Amino acid sequence: MNVNVKTTQVTIRKIGNSEGVIIPKEVLLGLGLKAGDELTLEVPAGGIFLKKREEEFAQQLALAEKFMSRYETALKKLAE
């Protein structure tokens, strides 16, 4: 990561029917992020953590979702 750990204050804003936070341009540039990139949102106790979505993990998640969809009935029976 090219950005030193630092604290930046941002404001939650109304964006259409949703709410969001504007990430400062210098932070995006330092992390190699741009509009349209996907992030993973983690919510540890007392905070919010955003990180760039890892493609390998995204592929593994897609395979897991496909598996769960295909074997939904069997998985429900096993859960009983």
In angstroms, what is the radius of gyration?
A: 18 Å
SSE string, helices as H and strands as E: EEHEEHH
Mean pLDDT: 85
- The structural domain count equals 2
End-to-end separation in angstroms reads 44 Å
What sort of overall outline do the alpha carbons produce when their principal axes are compared?
Answer: elongated
Secondary structure tally: strands = 4
Helical content, roughly?
Answer: 25-40%
The main β sheet shows up as: 2 strands, antiparallel
By DSSP (H or I, 4+ residues per run), the number of helices equals: 3
Strand arrangement, major sheet: 1-2
Global structural class: alpha+beta
Classify the beta-strand content into a percent band. 15-25%
Q: Enumerate the spans where pLDDT stays under 50 for 5 or more consecutive residues.
A: none
Give keywords.
two-stranded antiparallel sheet, 4 strands, 2 domains, 39% helix, elongated
Description:
This protein is of the alpha+beta class and about 80 residues long. The protein has three helices and four strands. The strands form two sheets. A two-stranded antiparallel sheet has the order 1-2. A two-stranded antiparallel ribbon has the order 3-4. Strand 1 and strand 2 form a beta hairpin. It starts with 11 loop residues before the first strand and ends with a helix.
